Amino acid sequence: MNFSSLDLAPEIQKAVDACGYRQMTDIQKQAIVPARRGMDLLANAQTGTGKTAAFAIPILQQMLDRPKETVSEYPRTLILTPTRELAEQLAETIKSYAQFTSLSVMAMYGGVKLSGQQKKLHAGIDILVSTPGRLLEHLVQCNVHLSQVEFVVLDEADRMLDMGFISDVQTLLKQTPDKRQTLLFSATMSKQVDMMASSLLTKHKVVSAAKKNETAVTVEHVVYAIEEHRKADLFLELIEQENWFKVLVFTSTKAQADELKRQLKHAKITSALCHGDKSQGARRRAIADFKSDKVQVLIATEVAARGLDIQGLEYVVNYNLPYLAEDYVHRIGRTGRAGEAGHAISFVSREEERALNNIERLIGYRIKRLTMPGFDVGSRDSLLKNISKNVRPGRTNKATQTKIKRGKNKK
């Protein structure tokens, strides 16, 4: 199905053509028409499936169908998203769709001064893309008013739930009119997301671009069993052997990210960090340097798992598996986008095997296991025998008893 069949306004069709869009993606086929008719939607769509166009194009079309003057401090469309990176990305993408119209788009987030954003709000914005916390700050200071909002989009709704934004979202939506159109997009579906949709949407339609928590078919998944203390060595070996030119690698903690960067520097491999101890400016520079190929490796914690849109990214490495199985889907969603091939490589220690099992249950299949010569992991039986040899009868200390018990439980 082509975009040309939608009978869009000439300004929007021209922008769609300029973006190189021809055939609609699955989520666009399902969402654009009902959204254009004013229906509330609950959409299951991951990043990289064309979801931004799925909600932005029908909203832009309706705004052009019912033109209004831009009013100072009163946006017509509100798009809520959990992170600064997502807000910036969404605003830039929507600007490309609105480039031949007079509609204005603004991204708003924390980490920068309120005054600059206040000036833009006062000048008048038609489409406001914001993180919940920063929007609340402006509401308290009466820099923005939501009483004339006609369209609301909740993007990455599952992530907003995970980050504890649901109460902020509910507070914000109470400031909007009851008669509004609300579109809720979520990469994963859960009881919590369903409950959120039931409380915020009216007679909504459910659309889905894929099965729940399904990963892109263009991504190849592999697992390397590896001792925790040897992960950095394996990573360096794979970079050299496989000629990985550009790699996004996820660690579970900031300390692990810092240590990996230190070892990469020692190996003379350029890298950048993106985690919670870095300022917004530093994170932006790290992502920009990675996108422009100034650094070979971007090391990130969960803060970067959503919203990163890096064209041509082939490799995502899980240096540590995420604590939540759902976050695996979000992490590897950075590769294999828009039909391109991608590779998701996970390093799994003994302690992470339960997390791996949870991930495989979530995505519905067993991930291929690979081995690298020189990085073999001993069997659990050998480990338990070695522990037993070092314990004299009747003298087993509590710490060793705990190790043996844990080993049996994981066997």
TrEMBL record:
One of its GO terms (cellular component) is cytosol. Residues 1-29 form the DEAD-box RNA helicase Q domain. Gene3D superfamilies: P-loop containing nucleotide triphosphate hydrolases (3.40.50.300). Residues 392-411 are annotated as: Disordered. It holds the Pfam family Helicase_C. A motif (Q motif) lies at residues 1-29. InterPro entries: DEAD/DEAH_box_helicase_dom, DEAD/DEAH_RhlB, DEAD_box_RNA_helicase, Helicase_ATP-bd, Helicase_C-like, P-loop_NTPase, RNA-helicase_DEAD-box_CS, RNA_helicase_DEAD_Q_motif. Residues 32-207 form the Helicase ATP-binding domain. The keyword ATP-binding applies. The keyword ATP-binding applies. One of its GO terms (molecular function) is RNA helicase activity. Keywords: ATP-binding, Helicase, Hydrolase, Nucleotide-binding. Residues 231-378 form the Helicase C-terminal domain. PROSITE patterns: DEAD_ATP_HELICASE (PS00039), HELICASE_ATP_BIND_1 (PS51192), HELICASE_CTER (PS51194), Q_MOTIF (PS51195). Belongs to the DEAD box helicase family. This is RNA helicase. It comes from endosymbiont of Galathealinum brachiosum.
